[in-house]
Amino acid sequence: MCGIIGIVTKRREGQTAEIAVECLDRLSYRGYDSVGVATLGDNLEVVKMKGKVEDFSHKFDVNSIRGKVILGHTRWATHGPPTDYNAHPHTDCSNSIAVVHNGTIENFRELKAELEMLGHKFKSQTDTEIIPHLIEEFKRRGMDSFSAFKATVNAIEGTYAILAVIRGDNRIYFAKKYNPLVIGIGEDTNYISSDIPSFLPYTKTIVVISDDEVGYLTADSPLNGGVYIEHKGEKIEVNDRIKIINWDAESASKEGYRHFMEKEIMESPRSVKETISGLLADIDEVMKAVKILKDSRRILIVGAGTSYHAGLLFSILLQREGINAIPVIASEYYNYRTSTDDSILAISQSGETLDVRLAIGKFKAEGSKIISLTNVIYSEISRQSDVSLYTSAGPEIGVAATKTFTSQVASLLLLWSAIKDEDFSYLRNAHIVVEDSLSLSGKASAFGEELAKQSNAYFLGRGLSLPLAMEAALKVKEIAYIHSEAYPAGESKHGPIALVTQGFPVIFINGEEDLGLQDNVQEMKARGSKTYSISINKSLNTDREILIKVNDKRLFPLAIAPLIQILAYRSAVIKGTDPDKPRNLAKTVTVR
Ligand code: M6R
């Protein structure tokens, strides 16, 4: 995964490192095993360490790091454990070239062996370190810097977003294959990063880099040649690519909340409102998607983690209409064979998840039409799709998907109604359901506080409540480190109930009345379980209960989603874990 940033400026040298570290902080959801910066002034200097961005700011006097060209990196370890040495940026033998990289180089062992034969000395166990040495090697053979960089990119195989600085010029060289890279155009400073929110406080003018492109960036405006891009040797007209985005900078800051996760849950009503109005404003695109879905023999709904749960919910809605909808866990895509009669709905907040990309790559090659629902404009997955739909949740920084999940569910309800030819104006009130539900967040927090004392929990649901129960269990597991499992409530009797002893917490998610959950509550109570429920409109008579009133039952998942998130968030806070940066995780998973 990893987050990379490059900044090249005409401003005073002193501020740039500070800005780079601030950008890295906003990128650290992509990985937080280690952090480092390289600055190019008269000399090339590298400062790096194992740990998070805040540790870096405490350890080093960032203001004293000077240079007008800066690279930064925050790492999610793949090759080599998180250590100071394995932290990026990596350099060549003569300390003239520094590189940061997001991705994996598959042929690095062969290249490393060749470079070692030629006398290159390596300091880390990473795949990335071969890049500065290859550039150095090509330069030794007489190439200029850009040619040496391009020759290096041609030599490596794998996935990458690479930034390099080379002593002798004030450029940031870049290359991209599979991993995201976007340029931000500022006044006297240009940025290049893994994502837009990292530089959002400084500019909203962007240029998205596509696969197999290489180029370089200076501090000049693109009109004066500040951005140069090539695709397979052909120069790209950069000015045609410039876009202005409408995200606001505040959405990438905590604004007084203790954690991004809490802030983002609280933003859910606005995210849902903007998502629905965004889709209604783009109704032609929505109807294109609807036509494809309706004309299909089968619909495969592909996603990972939280996005899979949104897709599972959608598949149940469609199956109940007699539509052949198949929920697919993205990483298991190879089990499915599609054809020109099928369509694919790919759901991904980031629009980057590699498993989803691999899945749609295969299904597209088999002739299926691809529709995507992502939260990031011009994301990799959107660009791979025949029809791209968006949630308008704004940037989500916390690793746990919260407002984006609620917005995905709202979008899918709209698609479901459109598929049924049903009037979907009821969705204009969807955000009110979320808002009303958040007024009960104190009760969900109280559940979370009790759960924080436990080591295990079950979340049970039936029908459309099952994906919500699964999402609740995932949230509690990933941020509060409590072992929690979700089951269809009826299935709990076929094994899971064996673990239930006195006080074992079982949380029922009860969105649809009369599916039989009452019986399951009694079965659990009879075995001493402490029962909880989050119910819509009708009590389940559990030991503790949150009862939510929802007038339009179609909208009930939007009432439950924020409360399960609050419950998990509060458990994490009580346990003292960092809900924004849970251990071993990264928000965007671009490895298999
Ligand atoms: O960006 P995506 O929606 O494709 O991400 C998929 C999962 O990695 C993601 O939903 C993950 O499960 C969340 N961090 C859970 O909160």
In short:
The chain has 592 residues and is α/β, with parallel strands linked by helices.
Secondary structure layout:
Blueprint lengths: L2 E7 L4 H14 L6 E7 L3 E7 L2 H7 L9 E7 L14 E2 L5 E9 L2 H10 L12 H11 L4 H11 L2 E9 L5 E6 L4 E4 L3 E5 L11 E4 L4 E5 L9 E5 L2 E2 L7 E2 L15 H7 L1 H14 L1 H12 L4 E5 L1 H15 L5 E5 L13 E6 L5 H12 L3 E6 L5 H4 L3 E4 L12 H17 L10 H9 L2 H11 L4 E6 L3 H16 L2 E6 L16 E6 L6 H10 L3 E7 L7 E5 L7 H20 L17
Parallel strand pairs: 16-17, 16-18, 18-19, 19-20, 21-22, 21-23, 23-24, 24-25
Antiparallel strand pairs: 1-4, 1-10, 2-3, 2-4, 5-6, 6-7, 7-8, 8-12, 9-10, 9-11, 11-15, 12-13, 13-14
Helix pairs in contact: 3-4, 4-5, 6-17, 7-12, 7-13, 9-12, 9-15, 12-17, 13-17, 14-17, 15-17
